[in-house]
């Protein structure tokens, strides 16, 4: 399934969360990631993320879609990480 993950994490934990999310998804903008994951890999990512975050102060939002082709994405301004250039 196609995933968009967005997080709002206190500054002292941002580095750990960034490193974790980059293991599973493509970084596209500050605190925003996208990519294809199986349900098992998504559960694994969220399980590890819960160990990093403070549930009372931090948040993660996950948008799920069956396939990327069903998502109409529009970027206005400079795209931070253009995935079309990856071979």
TrEMBL record:
Gene Ontology molecular-function annotations: hydrolase activity; metal ion binding; RNA endonuclease activity
Nuclease listed as a keyword: yes
UniProt KW keywords: Antiviral defense, Endonuclease, Hydrolase, Magnesium, Metal-binding, Nuclease
Binding sites annotated in the UniProt record for Mg(2+): 8
Cofactor: Mg(2+)
Record InterPro entries: CRISPR_associated_Cas2, Virulence_VapD/CRISPR_Cas2
EC number(s) on file: 3.1.-.-
Position of the signal peptide: none
Keyword Iron annotated: no
A GO BP entry: defense response to virus
Sequence similarity: Belongs to the CRISPR-associated endoribonuclease Cas2 protein family.
Cited HAMAP family: Cas2
Protein function: CRISPR (clustered regularly interspaced short palindromic repeat), is an adaptive immune system that provides protection against mobile genetic elements (viruses, transposable elements and conjugative plasmids). CRISPR clusters contain sequences complementary to antecedent mobile elements and target invading nucleic acids. CRISPR clusters are transcribed and processed into CRISPR RNA (crRNA). Functions as a ssRNA-specific endoribonuclease. Involved in the integration of spacer DNA into the CRISPR cassette.
Subunit structure, as described in the record: Homodimer, forms a heterotetramer with a Cas1 homodimer.
Protein name: CRISPR-associated endoribonuclease Cas2
UniProt source species: Chitinophaga rupis
Lineage: Bacteria, Pseudomonadati, Bacteroidota, Chitinophagia, Chitinophagales
GN (gene name): cas2
